[in-house]
UniProtKB/TrEMBL annotation:
Biased composition, class Low complexity, residue ranges: 1-17
Molecular function per GO: catalytic activity
Chain ranges of the DNA/pantothenate metabolism flavoprotein C-terminal domain: 179-278
Protein name, UniProt field: DFP-domain-containing protein
Pfam families reported for this sequence: DFP
Superkingdom of the source species: Eukaryota
Residue ranges of the region described as Disordered: 1-30
Similarity comment text for this entry: Belongs to the PPC synthetase family.
SUPFAM superfamilies the UniProt entry points to: CoaB-like (SSF102645)
Length: 370
C-alpha cells in the first residue's frame, strides 16, 4: 500500500459539526476513493519514468463536486469547464514537460478541447469523399498541428491523465501526487488550476439514499475543507515549485487575497484571475527577490498586518511589475493581458504566455538551489 493511501479512516472520529477540519483529522476520518492506490501507482511510475529526463508538472483542472447522498443523485458543483487546465497542459507539453493532468471526470482535456461537443462539434469538421470520411481542407489546416501534438504526447507517453469527481477524491489525490513528486525536488511543479470546493459534507453527514422531498425543505450544514496547500508546501513536497490560482469576482480583491495566500502558505506564486476577464487577463503575485526602490511607477507601499493594501502610484497598465516592501516582506506583481501581449490577436491564448513565464521562473527556481 502506498504512503498516501495507508491511512485508514476511523469513521467515528469526525470533529464537532461546523468546525474546521485539520488536514490530519480530515484524512483520519474521511474515506479514500476506491481507485486511490491504482492512481497513486500510476503517478509514481510516471514520475519514475521521467525523473532526470524531463521536468514534471502536475496540472489540476476542472471543478470538484460535493455529493449530498452516498448513492449520489444530487451534488453541489464548482464552476469550471477545465479550459485553463487543459489549455495549460498543452503548453507545458510543448515546453518539454511531462504532465500529470489531474482533472474532473468529463471536463475539457488537452487537444480534444479544441473539438468540444458544444463549441466545435467534431461532425462539423468532416465531409464525405466517395466512401470515406475526411476533414474539410479548412478544418484540416487547424486540425493538423493539434493532431501532431496529440500524437507526439501519446507516442512518447508524456502525459498521464488522472480523474477525480468529488472534493474528497481531489484532496486524497493531491496528497498522493505531492508525495510521489517529492523526490523530484525542485524539478517538480504544481499548477493548481482546479476550482476546489471550500466546503464539504463529511462522510458521517452524507445521507445514504436519495434525500426525500416529502420531509420539506432541505437544511445543509457543511464543514470547511482543510487548507491543504499548507501541508503540500511544508510536508508533502517541500521543494516543489508551487503555483496556486485565486479566482475572485471583484477585481479589487485579487491582489490582496493572492498576497494573503502567499503569506499564509509560503509557496512560490499565486495567479489571480477575475471571473469575467480570466481568459485575457491574469496577475502573477509572488515574493519579490530584490525589492526595488520605492516611488517608481507601478510600485506599492504601505502595509497592514504584514500585507500591503495601498497602491500609491498611478494606473498600472499590464504587463508590468509592481512591488511592495512591508516590514521585511516584499511582493511583486506581474500583470499579463492578452491584447497587450500579442497586439490584439484574439486567436492567441493567455495560457501560452502564462506557461512561458512559469517555465522561466521554474528554471530560475531550480538554478537558485545549485
Ligand atoms: O476552467 P476554467 O478555464 O473555466 O476556469 C479556470 C479557473 C477560473 C477555475 C482557474 O483559473 C482558477 O482560478 N482556479 C482556482 C479557483 C479558486 O480560487 O479556487
Amino acid at each position: 500500500m502506498s504512503e498516501a493511501s495507508s491511512a485508514q479512516p476511523s469513521r467515528a472520529a469526525s470533529p464537532t459539526p461546523g468546525r474546521e477540519f485539520s488536514t490530519e483529522s480530515y484524512f483520519n476520518t474521511q474515506r479514500p476513493p476506491a481507485r486511490l492506490e491504482v492512481q497513486t501507482e500510476m503517478m509514481r511510475e510516471f514520475v519514475k519514468k521521467w525523473d532526470g529526463k524531463k521536468r514534471v508538472v502536475l496540472v489540476t483542472s476542472g471543478g470538484t463536486t460535493v455529493p449530498l447522498e452516498s448513492n449520489t443523485v444530487r451534488f453541489l458543483d464548482n464552476f469550471s469547464a477545465g479550459t485553463r487546465g487543459a489549455t495549460s497542459a498543452e503548453y507545458f507539453l510543448g515546453a518539454g514537460y511531462a504532465v500529470i493532468f489531474m482533472h474532473r471526470l468529463h471536463s475539457l482535456r488537452p487537444f480534444s478541447r479544441h473539438y468540444s461537443h458544444s463549441l466545435n462539434p467534431f461532425l462539423d469538421l468532416l465531409t464525405i469523399s466517395s466512401d470515406s470520411v475526411v476533414a474539410t481542407p479548412e478544418q484540416a489546416k487547424h486540425l493538423l498541428p493539434v493532431l501532431r501534438a496529440y500524437n507526439k504526447a501519446h507516442d512518447e507517453g508524456t502525459m498521464l491523465s488522472i480523474d477525480f469527481q468529488t472534493v474528497n477524491d481531489y484532496l486524497w489525490l493531491l496528497r498522493a501526487a505531492g508525495t510521489v513528486m517529492a523526490p523530484l525536488e525542485r524539478r517538480g511543479m504544481f499548477y493548481l488550476a482546479a476550482a476546489v470546493s471550500d466546503f464539504f459534507l463529511p462522510d458521517d453527514k452524507v445521507a445514504e439514499h436519495k434525500i426525500q422531498s416529502a420531509k420539506g425543505s432541505l437544511h445543509l450544514e457543511m464543514d470547511q475543507v482543510p487548507k491543504v496547500l499548507r501541508p503540500l508546501v511544508q510536508e508533502w513536497t517541500p521543494e516543489g515549485y508551487i503555483v496556486s490560482f485565486k479566482l475572485e469576482t471583484d477585481d479589487n480583491l485579487l491582489v490582496p487575497k493572492a498576497r494573503a495566500a502567499l503569506a499564509r502558505y509560503g509557496h512560490q506564486l499565486v495567479i489571480g484571475n477575475e471571473l469575467h476577464s480570466r481568459k485575457y487577463r491574469v496577475v502573477f503575485v509572488e515574493r519579490a527577490i530584490t525589492p526595488p526602490a520605492s516611488g517608481k511607477e507601478g510600485y506599492f507601499t504601505g502595509g497592514v498586518r504584514g500585507l500591503v493594501d495601498k497602491r500609491i502610484t498611478g494606473a498600472m497598465t499590464p504587463p508590468l511589475r509592481g512591488a511592495v516592501t512591508p516590514g521585511g516582506g516584499a511582493y511583486e506583481e506581474t500583470w499579463l493581458e492578452l491584447g497587450q501581449l500579442n497586439g490584439g490577436d484574439k486567436e492567441k491564448e493567455i495560457e501560452e504566455y502564462i506557461i512561458a513565464e512559469l517555465v522561466a521562473r521554474h528554471e530560475a527556481w531550480i538554478k537558485a538551489k545549485k
